[in-house]
## 1
Amino acid sequence: MRYITGGIALGAALALGGLSASAAAGPAPEPAGARGYAPSELVLTIGYGEKAETASVQRAVTLGCSSGGVGSHPDAEAACAQLRSVGGAFDKVTKKPSDRPCTKEWNPVVVTAEGVWEGRRVSYEHTFANPCALNLGKGKVFAF
């Protein structure tokens, strides 16, 4: 087969039916989430302050759970497994009771999760009283 180069020659070849637009085009791209699972991609943050909008963000990671666990989270696989075990209910991670004591100081630390969990938009925020309370309630999800 001989290839024709140049805009005029290519236009002539198309007009004569030597090439068809459908033959030149590849398969249509697969829509997001069409691979048999709903997307689960999150950005997680930890910051000092009472509310996310005024907190000073100290750390942020990405967490992708659509295929095991990927992203910049240091233990993405365990974090994804924990979220799956609670059906994506972040409160069941952060508000899990603990019998270990913490001081009563008020030095608030806020955690956030923004993105998509199993195809649903997520915008989660929880404020811990202090870093000790964060360490008790962060689970695997906010352990970074």
Note: The two ends are 58 Å apart (CA to CA).
## 2
Amino acid sequence: MPSILYTAQVTATPGSVEASDGALTLDVHEPSELGGTGGSTNPEQLMAAALASCLLESVRISAGTAGESIDDVSVEGSVSLSDTDGVGYDATYSLAVSLPNFANPDNVLAQAKSICPFLKKLDDVDVTLTD
């Protein structure tokens, strides 16, 4: 059985989210486009940030094995909500990865996608190479 290496724990309460270690405290509200109060971050932005930063860390690992520098690398994350025929929303996720001046950007990205724990668990995340 695998051993747990790290556990992130947050508590969400109406209007906020806070990490158990105090490193993250944010006001969280539904976007005004969806009828919320807006004016702060929202779950969709948090999800986009989590996906983008997770893939970036995986790119860092795979770029290191390929001898590449990540100084100019970026990952743009998007979460889009759409209405459904039923209750609630559907979400689509996309990541646009920039690996400028990489000798083999496709290989680095393929390895990064295979090791990113979030991408291994989520189906249908559209990941594209922008350079």
Note: The chain has a mean pLDDT of 95.
## 3
Amino acid sequence: MPGRLRPLLVVDAANVVGSVPDGWWRDRRGAAERLRDRLAARAAGGSGEGTGDGEDGEEIVLVVEGAARGVASVPGVRVVEAPGSGDDRIVELVAAEGRGRPCTVVTADRGLRERVAALGAGTAGPRSVR
């Protein structure tokens, strides 16, 4: 895509994982890894070959915090650890990397949605990646 910046998709791991009561609280890191793997399949277009691009060539960033830290990046999904608040790290990412290109944050957190919208990012709910 010469001359065009790739869209950025930032996923709030804690919020997306927490949106389904499937026992994630027993293994937060494992739940974040399963989400990462679903996102990697999206990036690969379901082929399992990992092109590094998601739908429409998007760059996918998964933000993890707390007990979910330690999840490794994989082809198609860059994992970023939040040293403190995941929401604050997401806002930092949107401010630093989302300007001048389409940017969407996946979360159901109303406060976070407002913060990233003020920076020009769009939002989507957890179901969009589950």
Note: Residues 47-53 have pLDDT under 50 and may be disordered.
## 4
Amino acid sequence: MTVEPSGLGPMGDVQLLAATLRSDRTDVASYARVLSGALADALPPGMVEVEFRRGLADRVAGRSGRAVAVLVHGEDRQLALREGPHGTVEPEVRQVVRDVVISRRTVDIEQWLRALAEDLTRVAARDAAARAALERLLAGGV
């Protein structure tokens, strides 16, 4: 897949990006690895937050623990992905005005991934490093 230099604008590219993010990712930790790995390096600082749960063994070993939530800050919304009971994934879209959450909506993972792809596409349209990271992700490099 070649992405035009103008960015990931067409809706088909958003759907392709959502499909790429969806593949083989069934838990919060998997999404956290993708979003906080090479992709996060190209995104604006603070756009992706990962919450970890640390047990005693993690503290003793100096590990960060297990990822239990991912929060992606968009322009006018936050996309939250939290670990639910029995390892399920609970996606939520939060409407934000001046850094205040004014509404929360539970969505399915497909809707969450589409919203994430749209936000990443907007960032890529403005930033060359983000565009290059998304092109690597679409090519299977992340």
Note: The mean pLDDT is 78.
